[in-house]
Amino acid sequence: MVDKDAVRRSYDELTDAYAAQRTEDGRDAALLTTFLDSLPDSPRVLDAGCGRGTPVLSRASAKGDAVGLDFSRGQLRAAAENAPGASLVRGDMAALPFADDAFDAVVAYWSLIHLPADEHPAVLDEFARVLRPGGRVLLSEGTTAWDGENPDWLDTGVPMEWSIAGAAATREHLREAGFAVVDEWGTRSSLKADRAEEAEDRTPWTFFAARLES
Ligand SMILES: C[S@@+](CC[C@H](N)C(=O)[O-])C[C@H]1O[C@@H](n2cnc3c(N)ncnc32)[C@H](O)[C@@H]1O
Prior knowledge:
single chain, alpha/beta, 7-stranded mixed sheet, two-stranded antiparallel sheet, about 30% strand, binds S-adenosylmethionine
C-alpha cells in the first residue's frame, strides 16, 4: 500500500522531471477546457493535487477564483510561479482544510491515484463536503485496479508509488459520496514517457465528470 510520506518526498524531488514529461495538449487538457467552459461565471475551483500549477490551476485561475492544494512543497513552489493568480494551500486531499460548500468545482488530475485505494472513498466524501449542492467534479483514475511502485521513475533515480481503485470502484465511490456521474472517458497517459508502453492499451486511464446531487 502507498506510503504517502514517500510520495510527498518524491514529488519534492521530481518537480522539474515531471514538468519535462507532462503534456499540456493531450486529451486531459481538452476535457479540462470543456469542463471549465461549462461552469458558471467566475467559478471557485479547487485543484486537488495541483502539482506545479499547470495545466489545471493556471487555466482555472484565468476563469475565476482558483485554489491549488498539494502536499509537496516543491510542487507548490513551482505552482506559485506558474499560476500566480491562484491561492495555494499545503495539505492532504484526504482531509481538506476548507469549509463545507466552499467550491463550485473540484478538479483532481493524476493525484487520487497516489493515495492508498482504501482512502479514495474518503477523498470523494471530502470533495462532496467542500462542494456546494450541484457542484461539479472532474477527476482521473486508473481503468483497472492495481497497486505498484517504480524505484526509478522517469529515469530520475527517485521512487514513486501508485494505488489505483479502478474505474468500476470509482464509479461506485462517486455514487456513494452523493455524485451522479455525468460522463466518463478512457484516455492515454499525459506523460510523454508512458506513451510507448501504452501502445497496446489505449485506455489505461479513466476520467470522470460528476455532479453533486443536492
Ligand atoms: C502526477 S502529479 C499531477 C499534478 C497535476 N494535477 C497535473 O495534472 O499535472 C500528482 C500530484 O498530486 C500530489 N499529491 C499526491 N498525493 C497527495 C495527497 N495525499 N494530498 C495532496 N497532494 C497529493 C503530488 O504531490 C503531485 O503534485
